């Protein structure tokens, strides 16, 4: 962390630390300030400097002991930790045209990508992460090159602070796409929660034992295969089945899930599955991910006749979801043939698609027509031989998804680097635990504050944006429930929520301004609006319900809605008509119900600082909801241009109130 171009937090206690020989005297000097200490018995040392009145710099930071280190171009200003999953990791390069990457680069905006693998034990330093975007584990001065591979949400947040405050800003991007919140918690925090303690311990035990179990399988399966003569000997060349235009004779239509597929090979052998998918023009030349689910057997996957992946008895994750990448040079607009060869040594070939909803691939592989053809069949196995078949171990999780792993590997090495606060953008991976998320998020906030020991530092988060197609009927929504859990973080001190319900997942152009507005108002006392309308209370008035809001700055506003929307952000060229659920209503997105809890689309209008909600189908209303779906049609804003947060006035049971973290692979 202490390198050329770093930004140190302006505060009364800014820690500088490192390692030396036990007992070695260490002297630290910067901006005319000095401190001295001795390394402890393990060689660790720390000096806290009062930089609260220090000028911005640049300075040299000198650390002298048995040797001397001089770090150059060090600034004093505001440092923010920026963390979460894919929406925080999403880069500037992927968000705006290359020519607009920086606009006017600032020499006093500094960027640090904290990259390191997950770990089951706390690490002292950052080790790097191959393939992660941007420069790693080094401070960079703002430029088109350094900004392009940096978090877009973090970058535009820092850019605005830097411009508005006129002080140096340092951003530490500690994010990793697809990761659950449990990976970012410390072991101590998870031990303190009875709902997290046992799953965490079970998962860590499974992670620790997996290499041994995998080695046993790799030893025992080939021996079983040899003993019972179940080797896979292809009967024909793959091109006969996998290439576009290969003969269509002998193929049988199949659907998923389809128990008939397993019956094609009752005693084992090889079977081919084949389908044609259409690639839209906007995906041409881009890398794609295909996820065939959990396959019973070993497999090879072909794209237009070219093998793009396989799982053998030597592979990790034989019992897990398959995830294969299609190189961009193979992705051409038009039709593509996907073929999967499954070898099932004991029969029962099949594909389990139950986990596929979590994978957001633009290719919906199993929604189209598929066909199957048997390549060859093996003779029957005796019951004794079948009973000896070794079971493949389930890989517990990728390390970055293991409970505590990213706290240990990424966050712990950053502590106690001086920070003003943190911004957080995460939640998609935890949608299935939407109710529990409110307590887990509160725990993470307390956990990080406790470890940094800098008091109740500001913690601001982005609420999840709209995801997927618009719903034409009222119904339950885990996405709405996790947004509610995120909003509940406002019950913690020094927190804020940037509402993004009017945006799609990868649209950062407005999202980039909202966390900064919160920080400028709440942390730096700049005043001004920083939030959209937040539900406050309601009152029944005959057949109507009147709803009051906080943060109605500039009055409540019904914003005009577009005619179309993008249902899948992975395929931005495809649009659908946007249908307003309550035609003729000033406001869209409101629901109302009576005691029967039968939700109806509602009419709604603005009346001063209140919204009046009603439906001709509900004579005696008891509750109202707003923007309560995965990707709602909604248009309530305040005069300052901030959208209202989704809310509900009821406390009816949710979709997964009883769902609890169980350490499962994500």
Task: Give an overview of the whole structure.
The structure is a single chain. By secondary structure, this protein is of the alpha+beta class. It folds into 4 domains: 77-184 and 405-519, SGNH hydrolase (Rossmann fold, 3-Layer(aba) Sandwich); 187-227 and 392-403; 229-380, Galactose-binding domain-like (Jelly Rolls, Sandwich), CATH 2.60.120; 535-648, no CATH class. It contains 12 helices and 34 strands. Strands 1, 3, 4, 6, 7, 8, 9, 10, 20, 21 and 22 form an 11-stranded mixed β-sheet that branches. A hairpin with a 2-residue loop joins strand 14 (298-303) and strand 15 (306-311). Helix 3 crosses helix 12. The longest helix has 34 residues, at 194-227. It is globular. The protein starts with 6 loop residues before the first strand and ends in an 18-residue tail after the last strand. Mean pLDDT is 92; it is low at 506-511.
- Roughly how many Å apart are the termini? 30 Å
Which CATH C-level class of the largest domain is it? Alpha Beta
Proportion of strand residues:
25-35%
Q: Any low-confidence stretches, pLDDT <50, length ≥5?
A: 506-511
For the biggest sheet, the summary is: 11 strands, mixed
Count of DSSP strands:
34
What is the annotated CATH architecture of the largest domain?
3-Layer(aba) Sandwich
Protein name: Sialate O-acetylesterase
Keywords: Hydrolase
Organism: Terrimicrobium sacchariphilum
InterPro entries: Galactose-bd-like_sf (IPR008979), SASA (IPR005181), SGNH_hydro_sf (IPR036514), SIAE (IPR039329)
């Amino acid at each position: 962390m202490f390198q050329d171009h770093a930004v140190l937090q302006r505060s009364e206690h800014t820690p500088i630390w490192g390692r030396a020989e036990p007992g070695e005297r260490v002297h630290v000097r910067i901006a005319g300030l000095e401190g001295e200490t001795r390394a402890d018995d393990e060689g660790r040392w720390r000096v806290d400097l009062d930089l609260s009145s220090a000028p911005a710099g640049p300075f040299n930071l000198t650390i002298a002991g048995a040797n001397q280190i001089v770090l150059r171009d060090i600034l004093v200003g505001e440092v923010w930790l920026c963390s979460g999953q894919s929406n925080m990791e999403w880069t500037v390069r992927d968000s705006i045209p290359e020519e607009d990457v920086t606009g006017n680069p600032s020499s006093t905006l500094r960027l640090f990508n904290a990259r390191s693998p997950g770990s089951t034990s706390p690490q002292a330093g950052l080790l790097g992460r191959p393939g992660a975007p941007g420069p790693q584990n080094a401070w960079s001065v703002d430029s088109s090159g350094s900004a392009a591979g940096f978090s877009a949400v973090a970058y535009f947040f820092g850019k605005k602070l830097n411009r508005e405050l006129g002080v140096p800003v340092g951003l530490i991007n500690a994010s990793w796409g697809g990761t659950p919140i449990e990976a970012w918690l410390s072991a101590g925090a998870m031990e303190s929660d009875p709902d997290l303690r046992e799953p965490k311990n079970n998962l860590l035990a499974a992670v620790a034992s997996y290499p041994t179990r995998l080695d046993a399988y790799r030893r025992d399966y080939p021996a079983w295969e040899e003993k019972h003569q179940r080797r896979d000997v292809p009967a024909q060349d793959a091109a006969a089945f996998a290439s576009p235009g290969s003969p269509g004779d002998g193929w049988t239509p199949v659907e998923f899930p389809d128990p008939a597929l397993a019956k094609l090979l009752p005693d084992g052998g090889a079977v081919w599955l084949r389908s044609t998918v259409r690639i839209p023009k906007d995906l041409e030349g881009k890398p794609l991910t295909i996820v065939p689910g959990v396959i019973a057997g070993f497999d090879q996957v072909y794209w237009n006749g070219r093998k793009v992946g396989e799982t053998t008895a030597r592979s990790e994750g034989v019992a897990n979801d398959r995830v294969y990448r299609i190189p961009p040079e193979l992705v051409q607009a038009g039709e593509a043939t996907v073929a999967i060869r499954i070898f099932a040594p004991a029969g029962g070939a099949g594909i389990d698609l139950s986990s596929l909803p979590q994978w957001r691939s633009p290719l919906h592989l199993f929604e189209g027509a598929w066909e199957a053809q048997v390549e060859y069949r093996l003779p029957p196995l005796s019951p004794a031989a079948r009973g000896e078949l070794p079971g493949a171990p389930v890989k517990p999780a990728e390390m970055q998804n293991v409970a505590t792993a990213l706290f240990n590997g990424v966050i712990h090495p950053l502590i106690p680097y001086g920070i003003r606060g943190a911004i957080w953008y995460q939640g998609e991976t935890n949608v299935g635990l939407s109710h529990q998320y409110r307590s887990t998020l509160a725990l993470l906030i307390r956990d990080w504050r406790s470890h940094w020991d800098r008091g109740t530092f500001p913690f601001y988060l982005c609420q999840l944006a709209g995801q997927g197609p618009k719903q034409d009927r009222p119904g339950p929504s885990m996405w709405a429930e996790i947004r509610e859990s995120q909003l509940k973080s406002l019950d913690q001190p020094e927190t804020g929520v940037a509402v993004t319900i009017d945006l799609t997942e990868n649209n950062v152009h407005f999202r980039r301004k909202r966390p900064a507005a919160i920080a400028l108002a709440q942390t730096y006392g700049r005043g001004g609006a920083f939030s959209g309308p937040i539900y406050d209370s309601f009152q029944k008035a005959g057949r109507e319900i009147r709803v009051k809001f906080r943060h109605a700055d500039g009055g409540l506003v019904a914003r005009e809605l577009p005619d179309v929307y993008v249902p899948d952000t992975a395929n931005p060229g495809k649009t659908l008509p946007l249908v307003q659920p309550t035609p003729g209503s000033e406001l869209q997105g409101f629901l109302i119900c009576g005691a029967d809890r039968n939700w109806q689309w509602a009419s709604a209008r603005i009346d001063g600082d209140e919204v009046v909600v009603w439906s001709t189908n509900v004579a005696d209303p008891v509750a109202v909801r707003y923007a309560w779906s995965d990707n709602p049609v909604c248009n309530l804003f305040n005069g300052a241009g901030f959208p209202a947060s989704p809310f509900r006035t009821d406390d009816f049971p949710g979709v997964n109130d009883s769902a609890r973290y169980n350490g499962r692979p994500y």
